[in-house]
Amino acid sequence: MPVLTDDRRIGTVPPPIPPGDNGGNGPSEYGSSFPISKGQIGVWILLTAVVMLFAGLSSAYIVLRGVPAWQNIELPSLLWPNTAILLLSSVAIDLARRAVRRRDAQSMKRWLIAGLVLGAAFLLGQVAAWRQLVNAGVYLPSTLQSSFFYILSGLHGVHLLGGVIALVWVLVAALENKITVFNYERLKLCALYWHVMDAIWIYLFGMLLLS
Amino acid sequence: MHESHTAEHVHHELGFVRKYIFSTDHKIIGIQYMITAMAMAVVGGLLSMLMRYQLAWPQMLSPTLAKIFPISYSGGVMAPEFYISLVTMHGTLMVFFLFTAVLTGGFGNFLIPLQIGARDMAFPFLNALSYWVFLLSCIVIFSALFVTSGAPMGGWTAYAPLSAVPSAAPGQATGMTLWITAIALFSVSGLMGGLNYITTILTMRTRGLSMMRLPLTQWSLLITAILGLLAFPVLLGAGILLMFDRLGGTSFFVPAGIIMGQVPIDHAGGHPLLWQHLFWFFGHPEVYIVVLPAMGMASDILSTFCRKPIFSYRMMVYSMVAISVLSFVVWGHHMFVSGMNPFLGSVFTLTTLLIAVPSAVKTFNWLGTMWGARIRFTAAGLFAIGFVSMFVSGGLSGIFLGTSAADIQLQDTYFVVAHFHLVMAIAPLFAAFAGLYFWFPKMFGRFMNPLLGKIHFWFTFIGAYCVFFPMHIIGVGGQMRRIYDPTQYMFLVPQQPVNVFITISAFILGAAQLIFLVNFFVSIFAGKRATERNPWHATTLEWTAPSPPGHGNFGEELPTVYRWPFDFSVPGEKEDFIPQDVPATVTARH
Question: How large is the greatest C-alpha to C-alpha distance in chain A, in angstroms?
Fold first, then answer.
């Protein structure tokens, strides 16, 4: 019979319990202390899944770029201003995040609205870029690269649309004065999601350009 | 969580619909997952019975079946297309809708909060949503059996271009579209579940429950959720591309110059092997998404019924981590005969054989746990031992198949069928049965009949070996994996009696599962009441909760953990087990 003498396993008594704390998810607890909140972990996990989705699709892109039938398309020129708008929207949302840390609620609301408008403008701009491509006679099945362009930009747009919906939710909370310096995690998480979507778009755009 | 909030959680009452149907309680969701998966298993099992019947007596007229399936049995004999649909639907239902669903969705939901001392999952609403999306995907895949053009025929792997061109075969029209839709919904549901499992296990462990005090079931579910998080999005992405190939006219997986049914296909430039790479990048981790929770549950149950700590807890954890990391770099071993560069093949051989190391560590640790133990042969304990047996039997043939030189001979024969059924179907099935017999009293407050449980075990154990062991022999003899009529080749005719033996064994194995189903559903209402909270004298936290646990699981106060989950037969103690929430009164040093 094995004799267990490792006192990390047996007989270790946890330190006294802080009053009013019944265990579970507090960051101050022995053993189960986990310094990151549920919401933050949840968003990071979600982002991991999104990154894996685009990683899988870009591996397909890279493989198919090597086939003889590959044909590059002229990417719509609107993508450049769109990318700039998306970058500005990220800046606006981050300024909102900084404003709440300065306890400047008015400025936070203004920047949130600016971010939302810019985000929506990006999505509309992407649709316009699709129109530009269609007018040039390049459709979804035209070439492998055009198929990839429509699908990658479309999937990215769907994910950013999710971000826009989340931002509306944050903005509603902000207008109801529910977002304060003590309670702005949803704004922080929304900004995080938005920045990653931003980075994914720049990555996708670069990949499409560098063919 | 504050006291007042907790009290509210424990006491408020819900109506029947909110409590048992649209529930956000992890226990209800877990049981919903289990029962849905069982229903899918019954369908998938019946399909395999039809397949076995066809393989044993391929030319025989079957008027009864012709009455049930007038189109598929027109003329009294099964149509070859129908057989391929059966192969596809059986594989899909069993891999996704039974094993993935019951092990992570069912046991994961039921056990995670209970074993870590939490009141519910981190995101209960998302959890309920995950079940409803899963149910929707079940309905979609089930409906694929009834479309007029027939059920999908691409195999559970849906290889392109067969899956990418709707005119490739009758079932590849609507049936295949439904297949992709169902798998996409399933992926989304799995991601919602995985998001919950990881967050819950990381952030909601009760006081004192450090990571190295987690039961192995929890470790396995955490690692499984991470695997699913990394693998399912790739399948989803591949499925999106496949759907566009079918409906949008793109050519990701369809090469130029393909002719289907004498009609040239208007696609150009795609790469059918790309689908295989993307699919197996998901598909191999998927094998471990099924096997890891089975390993974790079998470890905990084995230890409980051996009344001994699990042999080398830390190595058990590290080997699961090693298996999961390696599972992402072995997918090429499914593609040795795809025209892959032999040098690349030997790299995949190396990584594949490396997985044998952590798997062997686990096997020897299970044997070490059983060594010299006074094993209690309950139904759950027997099934846990059966898991080890099946895992070893199925795993050993994996060494042959993982070696590219041998695989070229064995690829797509019944040797492969024998291997993957034993290692990733029968072994997880045994672990799931062990888990159901073990946690049944906690789920429903009653016991399953132990005698029927043992009868079920012996029929299933012997039956599974009689079905799958001879398949190695006919596989080496050359019988092809998806063959519809083995007697069409002279060289296969002499081994036809083995096919008959397998089929009869399969019928007995299938019938034995009725014992389980009757036992399960009758015991929910009429089983012996579980008066004790901890009938098996186990150590983990779920056994400190009432049976069945109420909403909020643990009453007013959450348990505190003082020790690891394997304090069995501690020398000098009166009882042969010490639950995790028992404080150390005397020093445990000896």
Answer: 79
If asked whether residues B554 and B497 sit together in one domain, one would say no
Distances in whole angstroms, Cα of residue B114 to Cα of each of A31, A129, B309, B422: 17, 52, 21, 30
Could you write out the three-class secondary structure of B76-88? CCCCHHHHHHHHH
Encode pLDDT of B472-520 as tens digits: 999 999 999 999 999 999 999 999 999 999 999 999 999 999 999 999 9
Structure token pair of residue B425: 């179907």
> Contacts of residue B581 in chain A, CB cutoff 8 Å?
none
Q: Render pLDDT for A21-50 as a digit per residue (tens, 0 to 9).
A: 333 443 333 444 578 889 999 999 999 999
Q: Are B433 and B383 a contacting pair, CB within 8 Å? A: yes
Tell me the two tokens of residue A147. Answer: 């198929």
| B515 token code pair | 């014992």
- Is ipTM beyond 0.85? yes
DSSP string, A40-103: HHHHHHHHHHHHHHHHHHHHHHHHHHTSTT-------TTHHHHHHHHHHHHHHHHHHHHHHHTT
Contact A31 B309 (CB under 8 A): no
What is the amino acid identity at position B377? F
pLDDT of residue B585: 66
Residues of A in contact with B118 (CB under 8 A): 24
Residue A175 CB neighbour total at 10 angstroms: 13
Q: Chains A and B: how many Cβ contacts under 8 Å?
A: 189
Please tell me the distance from the alpha carbon of residue A176 to that of residue B351, in angstroms, as a whole number.
56
Please work out, in degrees rounded to the nearest 5, the angle formed at the alpha carbon of residue A14 by the alpha carbons of A42 and B108: 35
Q: Which chain B positions have a beta carbon within 8 Å of A38's beta carbon? A: 122-123, 199, 203-204
> Would you give the end-to-end CA distance of chain B in angstroms?
39
Average pLDDT value over all residues in chain B: 93
Q: What is the pLDDT of residues A136-185, one digit of tens each?
A: 999 999 999 999 999 999 999 999 999 999 999 999 999 999 988 888 99
Show the 3-state SS of B396-410.
HHHHHHHCHHHHHHH
Single residue among B474, B499, B528 that ends a domain in this structure:
B528
Identify the domain containing residue B202 by its residue range: 36-253
Can you name the CATH fold of A38-209?
Four Helix Bundle (Hemerythrin (Met), subunit A) (1.20.120)
On whether residue B377 sits in a domain, the answer given is yes
Q: Which of B4, B7, B2 is nearest to B551 (CA)?
A: B7
DSSP state of B539: -
Q: pTM to 2 decimals?
A: 0.92
Mutation target vs B (from A40, A43, A147, A193; most B CBs, 10 A cutoff): A147
> B116, B141, B114: which is closest to B30 by C-alpha?
B114
Q: In what helix (H) or strand (E) does residue B225 lie, and over which residues does it extend?
A: helix B216-247
